[in-house]
Please model this.
Amino acid sequence: MCKAIHTHGLPEKITIDQSGSNTAALKHYNKIHKTAIAIRQCKYLNNMVEQDHRAVKRIVRPLLGFKSFWAACCTIAGIEVMHAIRKGQLLPSANRALTPAEQFYALAA
Model:
């Protein structure tokens, strides 16, 4: 957890499942570092994140693994970009609306 916080910065809230070890670790971190990271423990708060990864899992599973970390990183990044385009999460062009394929090719150019 310390490595993740060092890399990504101090979060305001952390959503975890009902595991006691995660709760104990977060409480210990808050106490030692004198931070006020809010702990959200609910079975269903992570569902939105997990559901969003379903599309990636569905595409990656038939690939039968990756030969290197670099190949995995590039492939999953491409899948995530296509998923974001499909969901309409990228900003449209100022002068006209682009189709998902046009948005993808614009990113590659």
Q: What stands out?
A: The first helix runs from residue 2 to 8. Residues 2-49 form one domain.
